[in-house]
Design brief:
Layout (H helix, E strand, L loop, with lengths): L1 H20 L3 E4 L2 E4 L4 E2 L1 E5 L3 E5 L7 E3 L12 H5 L8 E2 L9 E5 L6 E5 L2 E2 L21 E3 L7
Parallel strand pairs: 3-7
Antiparallel strand pairs: 1-2, 4-5, 6-11, 8-9, 9-10
């Protein structure tokens, strides 16, 4: 009987520990807040362009040479082909500095677009799967982003 009770107590303790260990909760000012897991950007590599930046799903991120620091010059049909990268929270891969990433508010729709070194980041609609770089060099104004990109 003692073994059965001891086994049940141990089993209950294990269940409680497992249940408590699965959620990340942080206490601030006596209140509990759940931490949100940030997605991670990726550094991918392609023989033609070398290493480049992609989102957490491996979709390539681009910059537009006609943009200005802190301002997008891509709107309308352009934005239809080059959707804005709007991820709110992410970590950056080795070789990148989190401080180089910022945000602008798009003038035409108020959407927050992420930037790298002040320049807006975009996707390309013809990239369909992880590792696609179909936007590289389009019209000599669209390029993949890497940690050596200079604006």
């Amino acid at each position: 009987m003692k073994k059965l009770v001891l086994t049940l107590v141990m089993f209950s303790i294990i269940l409680v520990l497992v249940a408590c260990g699965n959620s990340e909760v942080e206490k601030t000012d006596g209140k509990q807040t759940e931490q949100v897991q940030a997605d991670s950007l990726k550094s991918l590599e392609n023989e033609g362009v070398g290493k480049y930046l992609a989102d957490s799903k491996g979709m390539t991120l681009y910059y537009f040479t006609k943009d200005e620091s802190g301002k997008s010059n891509c709107s309308g049909e352009c934005l239809g082909n080059w959707p804005a990268f709007t991820e709110e929270s992410f970590t950056v891969p080795e070789g990148y500095n989190q401080k180089d990433f910022g945000v602008i508010t798009r003038e035409e729709n108020g959407i927050k677009q992420r930037t790298y070194k002040g320049y807006p980041l975009y996707y390309f609609v013809k990239d369909q799967k992880e590792g696609d770089i179909n936007g590289q060099g389009v019209k000599d104004v669209w390029f993949v982003v890497n940690n050596e990109t200079e604006f």
